[in-house]
What we know:
Layout: H1 14-42, H2 48-72, H3 83-118, H4 124-146, H5 165-191, H6 198-208, H7 215-227, H8 234-237, H9 239-257, H10 262-269, H11 289-299, E1 318-319, E2 326-336, E3 342-352, H12 361-369, E4 375-376, E5 379-387, E6 399-401
Antiparallel strand pairs: 1-4, 2-3, 2-6, 3-5
InterPro entries: Cyt_c_oxase-like_su1_sf, Rhodopsin_dom_fungi
Protein name: Rhodopsin domain-containing protein
Keywords: Membrane, Transmembrane, Transmembrane helix
Amino acid sequence: MILPREHETPFNKAPVIRAVAALLMVIAILSAVTRIVTRLLTVGAFKKDDQLVAAATVVVIAQSAAVISQGANGLGKLESLGPEQVSYILKSHYASDILYIAALLLSKVSATRTLWGMAPRERRKAIWAIEALIAAWASSSILAALFQCSLPQPWDFVHGQCFNRSIFWIYVDALNIVTDLAITGILVEMFIKLKTSTSKKILVISVFGCRIFIIPPIVSHMYYFKRIADSPNPLFDMWQPTVIVQVIQCLSIMATCIPYLKPFMDSLNSGQMAAGDYRGTRSKGSNSRSQSAYASARMSRPPRSLRGTGAGITSIATRASHRLQKYEMMDMSANHDRAGGVEENITTVTAGNKEDASNSPNNRSWDGQSHTSQTVLVQSTWRVDVEESGKDENYATAANTK
């Protein structure tokens, strides 16, 4: 239905409500789409935090539609409204309050799930605690919003008997601020330890910590809602808190999506900065420097069964693009089987390319110190049963050059 064109006046704020709600809804949708497309292009997966953002965006669309319909039916107008209009506004406002809290819940949990993927193990208990606080806050707020006024019309805050709604929104907004500060605090504590320049630290903390910019609108909502608590024209004076709620909702979605903008993702993927175990931020076909170092450390560590045997284990770094490899199988230790008289030989396979076959120390040290070459360290251990041939020691050597 196309509404007749209205202009904002001191006595009619309905056009402002409709315009702001529609504009901020579009911004939230674009932010979510940008994040999801960026993740699909760089990671190729639709992860749990992305699913939560998508769900939050759907809730935002429903909430914004309810607010737009309120403006279309007279919310923000100082003129007298008919009973049907008042009833429709109150019901839509009742639904929009619940959807607003649900949207905040989903966006906050998405942020904590993103934190979970980056945080080391010792910080995950704190993330669990924040998620528990968010769940308790949202569930209690939604439950209170459902029964804010007496039955059978819990949405009628104009003519019904309701609890103190200003105190209720102070509770909702105060814990909204606390949870945002908790999420931002963990982010800052994690990224302040980045091994990079101060400018890059500031960039990362600013991008991931932009959630603090939601706090001023939340404080404004507390102030304006308290002002209209005893207003003689609540359906007109509600236009300011309603607009501020749309701003808070949109900023919550944007704060969750801003870190996934393409230029910032490219900066992370280039290896210029890394924060702990930053999963899911590397592009297809490329490895970050931190993951290469971690893989090298894990793969170059000898298995427990070979420690203390005095046998040296050699790992040769090779270029990933090289197809020519040589496999050497050498007897590392021998254990006699008591029952069948079979020897168990534990062997180690070392993968390397032809140019490193000479095991030149210069070549290995240069490749180990290079920050640009991509290397793969391969070490495999398995058991080979060799029938006893009368000798105490058996050696097996196999070479395969592709």
